[in-house]
Write a structure and sequence with these properties.
single chain; mainly alpha
Length: 199
């Protein structure tokens, strides 16, 4: 179940909006560094430099601010990928999509960690996050299929397969090693995704 914060951004004053964003930024760092179960509201408020009671004006619980961060990542990542690929030629769309995902993960390691934790923190939230990502991918695949360039394959299965490639390459090089994904690694992934592994 996804919790909602007490006030939406539209209902807040400029000062309130700034405080809410400071709390989210601090929570991103605390959850990303310590993990959800070890994180505390005290650490979040200290990181945001606000009184502990202030937290509850914006979020009813630690879980609520965690949920907000996952929802924020979902929105921001999907928008970033969409904007990155919309001007790419059709033949380059898949590669550019992977590149955009890797770029985003590299710049948002704490948020990526927070989503990975969701499989234990809240399985329904974890499922919601990946379903939102997959649904966007499925729509893009259906549009691409209309060009006649790709085989008729089940779009959901294909979306999750491609997401799996991006997920584990991103985890292996960016998240665990704190490196950029090597060009030759992306070359292999694209060769497999677009042409398969059989001679």
């Amino acid at each position: 179940m996804i919790h909602l914060s007490l006030k939406t951004e539209k209902e807040l004053t400029k000062k309130g909006l700034n405080t809410r964003r400071k709390l989210l930024k601090a929570a991103e760092k605390v959850f990303g560094t310590n993990g959800y179960f070890e994180a505390s509201i005290v650490e979040i408020t200290q990181g945001a430099n606000v009184a502990q009671g202030t937290f509850y004006k914006y979020f009813p619980s630690k879980k609520a601010i965690y949920d907000e961060l996952v929802q924020q990542m979902s929105r921001d990542l999907r928008l970033f990928i969409k904007q990155s690929i919309e001007k790419s030629p059709q033949i380059d769309v898949h590669r550019r999509g992977f590149e955009a995902f890797f770029e985003w993960v590299g710049e948002n390691r704490n948020l990526y960690s927070i989503v990975l934790q969701a499989v234990i923190v809240d399985k329904d939230l974890y499922r919601w996050y990946y379903e939102k990502l997959a649904n966007g991918y499925i729509r893009a695949l259906k549009e691409a299929h209309k060009t006649g360039e790709f085989k008729l394959l089940d779009h959901e299965a294909l979306a999750y397969s491609l997401m799996g490639i991006g997920q584990f390459i991103g985890m292996r090089w960016i998240y665990l090693e704190e490196e950029e994904v090597p060009k030759e690694v992306l070359d292999v992934a694209m060769e497999m995704a677009l042409h398969g592994i059989l001679k």
